[in-house]
Amino acid sequence: MADESTRSTACTGSSLLQPVSEMTNLPLDQVNFVVCQLCALISAFWFRIFLHPSKTSPFIRHVVATVLGLYFALFCFGWYALHFLLQSGLTYGIMILTGVEHMHKYCLVVALSYLSLCQITRVYVFDYGMYSADFTG
User: Fold this and answer.
1) What whole-number distance in Å separates Cα of residue 9 and Cα of residue 3?
2) Rg of the chain over CA atoms, in angstroms?
């Protein structure tokens, strides 16, 4: 019984919202994800008002969006967010190194292979039921 209760609250992301998770009786990773989605919607309005293209440079807009996105990914998924960076780096490398006529095929194969490998590892190596939200979604 104790193992089951620790399993439902296990999360690699932030534990800041643990009290909310306990009050709502929802897994912490789902609470983190929903809160991040709501914060992203709110920050989209802020982004549009204060970082409008007529007011700021594209570089500043890209930096703010990247930092905010990385923070949300780390908040939700913890160190699993490194998989986002690795997969993006792999496909970006393919886009740089290959020609336009085959780029989409190689990116699709690499992205699906990487996600499939991660999912198979998650199912057979790690505890499959540990997290209800994972990065392969």
Assistant:
1) 10
2) 18
Burial class (CB in 10 A: 0-12, 13-18, 19+), 53: exposed
| 84-97 confidence digits (pLDDT tens) | 889 999 999 999 99
H-helix or E-strand containing 99? none
Q: How confident is the model at residue 2 (pLDDT cuts 50, 70, 90)?
A: very low
What's this model's pTM, rounded to 2 decimal places?
Answer: 0.72
C-alpha dihedral (58, 76, 120, 1), degrees to nearest 10: 180
Q: Give the three-class secondary structure for 19.
A: helix
- Please say whether the beta carbons of 10 and 133 come within 8 A: no
